Amino acid sequence: MGWIGLYRPDASEVRSVAAELGIHDLAVEDTITAHQRPRLERYGDVLFTVLRPARYIEVDERVEFGELHVFTGADFGRASGAGTTASEPAGSRKTLTRTSP
């Protein structure tokens, strides 16, 4: 399985990777448009997941939210994120790699 992690990719980067992986155009537009609601959708053989990780900032006594978009296919995983450090793809990849069979 291959893993592609993108941190705050621009539209051309998203489209380029999506074309290589055969990701549906509607899913590509959803990942380019920020502020998606958390959800899980199937586009053919690809799952599109939107996660909204939260991180408590104790010094400011506030919660910061990020946004992570994950595409999962039979032989690939691709993530892009923006916002808090909790949503950075690198941390998610480490978690997924550690829990994979």
- Number of helical elements: 3
CATH class: Alpha Beta
Reading the helices and strands in chain order gives EHHEEEEEEH
What's the end-to-end separation, in Å?
12 Å
Please state the second-level CATH architecture: 2-Layer Sandwich
Name given to the CATH homologous superfamily: CorA soluble domain-like
Shape type: elongated
Sheet bearing the most strands, described?
5 strands, mixed
Residue share in helix: 25-40%
Mean pLDDT: 81
- Summing up helix and strand content along with how strands pair, one would put the structural category as alpha+beta
CATH domain fold name: Beta Polymerase, domain 2
Describe this structure as you would to a colleague:
- Helix content is 30%, strand content 38%.
- The protein has 101 residues and is of the alpha+beta class.
- It has one domain (2-99): Beta Polymerase, domain 2.
- The strands form 2 sheets. It has a 5-stranded mixed sheet with strand order 1-7-6-3-2, covered by helices on one side.
- Strand 4 and strand 5 (62-65) form a beta hairpin.
- Helix 1 (11-21) packs antiparallel against helix 2.
- The radius of gyration is 14 Å and the shape is elongated.
SSE layout and pairing:
Blueprint: E1 2-7, H1 11-21, H2 25-32, E2 39-43, E3 46-51, E4 54-57, E5 62-65, E6 67-72, E7 76-82, H3 89-99
Parallel strand pairs: 1-7
Antiparallel strand pairs: 2-3, 3-6, 4-5, 6-7
Helix pairs in contact: 1-2
